[in-house]
Amino acid sequence: MMSAYIKEINQELQKKLGKKNPNALPKLNKVVLNYRVTEGRDSQELLAAAEKELMAISGQKPRLTKAKKSIANFKLREGESMAYKVTLRGSRMYDFVNKLFNLVLPQLRDFKGMPLTSFDQEGNYSLTIHDQTYFPEVNLDLVNKIRSVQVTMSISASSIEESKMLLSTLGFPFEKN
């Protein structure tokens, strides 16, 4: 199913961009999910609950990231647990992107589309969903704290315009001008 989906998207992009070589088309390389758990240094139960939530959202076991250096202003010590991180590739990535574009983003309160200004210089797109309960896999009875999920889509494109074209072809809801 995924290969037919990618073929269809590539054909549409070839028409829009006028490129004949399929290797020159922009592609979605990976999707990285970051799930901050600031209270993780105090309670192992909260860390375990956050890990289960992110595992349900992504369908993959997350990796615990730790602080690289101490920052006194944030009461952060070197080696303390900070966040969970998941990198999705292949079919899991496309399944997550489909769920994000068609189920999660349209549910957001006062949703009028995602901003066009969240691209970096390489054409990657970042967004933050401020409530993890928008994802259908999260069990609302087990949620002990509302956390935000940061999503970064890494795109191999030669320009930001090509990245926008790829995301809009995939069905990403950009805000209308």
Walkthrough of the structure:
Helix content is 32%, strand content 20%. It contains 4 helices and 5 strands. The protein has a 5-stranded antiparallel beta sheet. The longest helix has 16 residues, at 2-17. The relative contact order is 0.21.
In terms of topology, how is this protein built?
Elements: H1 2-17, E1 27-36, H2 44-58, E2 63-66, E3 81-88, H3 90-104, E4 125-129, E5 149-156, H4 160-170
Antiparallel strand pairs: 1-3, 1-5, 2-3, 4-5
Helix pairs in contact: 1-4
What's a concise summary of this model?
The chain has 177 residues and is of the alpha+beta class.
Average pLDDT value?
A: 86
Categorize the overall geometry: elongated
Briefly note the CATH topology name. 50s Ribosomal Protein L5, Chain: A
Number of domains: 1
The level of helicity is 25-40%
User: How many strands?
Assistant: 5
Name the poorly predicted regions: none
Profile the largest sheet. Answer: 5 strands, antiparallel
Please trace the helix and strand order, writing H or E for each element.
HEHEEHEEH
Just give the CATH class: Alpha Beta
Helix count, per DSSP? Answer: 4
Give Rg in angstroms.
18 Å
